[in-house]
Amino acid sequence: MFNAITHSQIYVLDQDEALDFYVGKLGLEVNSDVDLGFMRWLTINVPGQPERQILLEKPGGPSMSAETAAQVRDLVTKGAMGAVIFSTDDCRKTYETLSGLGVEFTEEPTERPYGIDCALRDPFGNPIRLTQPKA
Amino acid sequence: MSRAVEDTNRRMLRARDAMDRAYAQPLDVPALARIAHVSEAHFSRTFRATFGETPHRYLQRRRVERAMFLLRETDHSVTDICFEVGFGSPGTFSRTFREIVGRSPRTYRKESTSMPVPTCFAMVWLRPSACGAAPSTREDVR
């Protein structure tokens, strides 16, 4: 049957702004950035992990009506769509580094039964979590 | 959806995130309106229009959700938990908890067990819902 998860998708409201954030601040890598005409196929991955990508998709036509696209944008900005969880070797250090770059966190590093994690949102409202799993 | 509404959504979300993060602090409308960069006059109404409940109710549910967590996962006394999550008096805490969860804090503690899921999902899914008591034990969820 299946071999792997290769792509997951989240909605972003502006792909350039998404790149500034995910690549410029969080330090992810652009995997593909292709203008297909009907859409811009934009994927990112954790550096060195190209086998698993996140598609940064902009809601809009022709796959969605203008009304649906507006609903999706509304939900994204209410924080009601998508979620990404990244793992990190050192949650506290990553938190310090990203805070220094002006990333706004919604939760500081906290001890959990499964490790240490902290949380932030992307510029559009999508929740992102950074977890340092328990060794 | 206009850009203005999306911008307002994000501001309200920022205030809601502050409640999730600093739930034990005395967060009032002026403080939350400042975080959201909107006027006090519009804050509560706009928040309710965005998320379907008042900021006060949201904060109460967040505090009760944290209390549920502490009742499940720690052996802190009910009185300590009341102040830990930001309630001003044990009476208000018990009344609000019972109103939202449908059981007293002590009964809830007796009936619940801990769950091995990431905290963000536990927080979102176990929080008592705005429209009635939420599932609060695994038995209820089944």
TrEMBL record, chain A:
Superkingdom per UniProt: Bacteria
Keyword terms, alphabetized: Dioxygenase, Lyase, Oxidoreductase
Stored CDD domains: VOC_like (cd07263)
One GO molecular-function entry: dioxygenase activity
One Pfam entry name: Glyoxalase
Domain VOC, first and last residues per copy: 4-133
InterPro entries: Glyas_Bleomycin-R_OHBP_Dase (IPR029068), Glyas_Fos-R_dOase_dom (IPR004360), VOC_core (IPR037523)
Protein name: Catechol 2,3-dioxygenase-like lactoylglutathione lyase family enzyme
UniProtKB/TrEMBL annotation, chain B:
SUPFAM superfamilies with a match to the protein in the record: Homeodomain-like (SSF46689)
Record bears the keyword Transcription regulation: yes
A GO MF term: DNA-binding transcription factor activity
Gene3D superfamilies tied to this protein: Homeodomain-like (1.10.10.60)
Cross-referenced PANTHER family: HTH-TYPE TRANSCRIPTIONAL ACTIVATOR RHAS-RELATED
Organism field: Sphaerisporangium rubeum
Keywords, sorted A to Z: DNA-binding, Transcription, Transcription regulation
Residue ranges occupied by any HTH araC/xylS-type domain in the UniProt entry: 13-111
Protein name: Transcriptional regulator GlxA family with amidase domain
